[in-house]
Amino acid sequence: MAPAERIVIENCAIATVDADDTEYATGHLVLAGDRIESVGAGPAPEGLTGVTRRIDATGHLATPGLVNTHHHFYQWLTRGLATDHNLFDWLTALYPTWARIDEDMVSAGARGSLAMMARGGVTTAMDHHYVYPRGTGDLSGAIVRAARDTGVRFTLARGSMDRGESDGGLPPDFAVESLDEALAATEATVREHHDASFGALTQVAVAPCSPFSVSTELMKQGAELARRLGVRLHTHGSETVEEEKFCHELFGMGPTEYFESTGWLGEDVWMAHCVHMNDSDIAAFARTGTGVAHCPSSNARLAAGIARVPDLLRAGVPVGLGVDGTASNESGELHTELRNALLVARLGPHREAALTTRQALRLGTYGGAQVLGRAAEIGSLEPGKLADLVLWRMDTLAHASVADPVAALVLGAPAPVTASFVGGRQIVADGGLLHVDEDALARTTREQARRLARS
Ligand SMILES: [Zn+2]
């Protein structure tokens, strides 16, 4: 076997986000192949062989790459619409447009969403895609190819909707699949794209959309399918008071009880939002190891409420961060969610004790790795883990006078990304994407957004 090529990074502050929150004021990282070989204080060990590159990272903070745990890429083409609505009114306004997407539009939306996140320090992305109009091409394949071309690690949550208006659901009937179509297509997507190996670039989860757009049968059979195939499960849950009311009216129970009754609580499940949860809901998540994708900006944009993140964390529930679709979070950036998660939590009952700056960084890194089931591979800077990391520039006007680099990253302006690596492969340099023509992509996304608006 050829000796691993090494990249040495030195002279930067490092927040490892390991179990002890180990930090170095000035330290080094050695990357060997796709892994982190060493991380520590001061300069790298002497006498390393096979060093192909040395990076003097003076003035930077190194952190694990950010992990996004909830998104809808296609919404990149429908930003800035229904801007003053709550969730149900916003969905009802947008479903007819979303139902007209095709493969070219989905590809452009995915590439736009991925580019924006990657430039902002995301190294692991996910897309919960649940709109599959008939005869519009290979939408899942287009999304997977977009992630591969951008260079990020990726989970495709193959979504589905089969409860249209005539079955008491929220989406129009023309926007939904049948139960059998949804299950068969989901299984085919897992078989085609899911890679279970250590360091996988592409994984697939089974992801019916939400209680108000999916039949009870699809929830149950979706959970059985995921467990038969050995993949994770994802959906939306407990997002708004309207959803809570819907569940009580239709199922005679709250969302968490409904999820439990359909097989949707467990270590292999993560759920977006989880805003309206009582103490027994939180205890059920903790008991079963069910994870949460917290999306503070989207929750604020849609007036959903403030998720009880401090209570979830204290109960031991795994919590990561999500951008959510860009039709409800137009910026599409995850690094701003670190700040928003902290600020929003402190507006709640725990006030200044709600969340520390380090906990905010942990949500966006290790917490995300946990809910995606990949905490053994990514989410912290430790020897043996994959070399997914970001060098944030902290010596410009925006951050140079901030005393603490982690506080600068979490509380300050969005920090420029000097370099970002996925499995040791660099995908961002000096704030720009290395494997994507951003100007051409901007034109494509604009054209496809116009096509969708006209269709
Ligand atoms: Zn969502």
UniProtKB/TrEMBL annotation:
<keyword id="KW-0479">Metal-binding</keyword>
<dbReference type="GO" id="GO:0019239">
    <property type="term" value="F:deaminase activity"/>
</dbReference>
<keyword id="KW-0862">Zinc</keyword>
<keyword id="KW-0378">Hydrolase</keyword>
<dbReference type="Pfam" id="PF01979">
    <property type="entry name" value="Amidohydro_1"/>
</dbReference>
<dbReference type="InterPro" id="IPR011059">
    <property type="entry name" value="Metal-dep_hydrolase_composite"/>
</dbReference>
<protein>
    <submittedName>
        <fullName>8-oxoguanine deaminase</fullName>
        <ecNumber>3.5.4.32</ecNumber>
    </submittedName>
</protein>
<dbReference type="InterPro" id="IPR006680">
    <property type="entry name" value="Amidohydro-rel"/>
</dbReference>
<dbReference type="InterPro" id="IPR032466">
    <property type="entry name" value="Metal_Hydrolase"/>
</dbReference>
<feature type="domain" description="Amidohydrolase-related">
    <location>
        <begin position="62"/>
        <end position="411"/>
    </location>
</feature>
<dbReference type="InterPro" id="IPR050287">
    <property type="entry name" value="MTA/SAH_deaminase"/>
</dbReference>
<dbReference type="GO" id="GO:0102127">
    <property type="term" value="F:8-oxoguanine deaminase activity"/>
</dbReference>
<dbReference type="GO" id="GO:0046872">
    <property type="term" value="F:metal ion binding"/>
</dbReference>
